[in-house]
Design a protein that fits this description.
The protein contains two helices and three strands. With 96 residues, it is of the alpha+beta class.
Length: 96
């Protein structure tokens, strides 16, 4: 399968990977969950899904006491590899 425009190929592969990662609760990415009440805050390492940042895929009962959650450096690196690196490598390989 050879497409004439590599940008279109990249965008199609990006969307094919981004849609499930951003809509389904697939806990792949390393992050931190901050539990707190008042002045005390407890940070816990936990695998997170990108869908949590869009408000999808988590139960309200699981979020009781959670004040914040975020990806750490390893989680951001893995997200970039999945969303940018894999489509770029596949596009490069299919264009050769």
């Amino acid at each position: 399968m050879r497409l004439s425009n590599p940008l279109i190929l990249f965008l199609v592969i990006f969307l094919l990977l981004a849609l499930p990662l951003c809509t389904l609760p697939i806990n792949l990415f390393s992050g931190m969950v901050v539990y707190g009440s008042g002045a005390a805050a407890i940070k816990v390492d936990a695998p997170l899904s990108l869908s949590y940042f869009f408000g999808l895929g988590y139960n309200e009962e699981d979020m009781v006491g959670v004040t914040n959650f975020y990806l750490n450096a390893r989680g951001y690196l893995l997200a970039i590899c999945f969303l940018i690196g894999v489509p770029a490598l596949v596009t490069y390989r299919l264009r050769k």
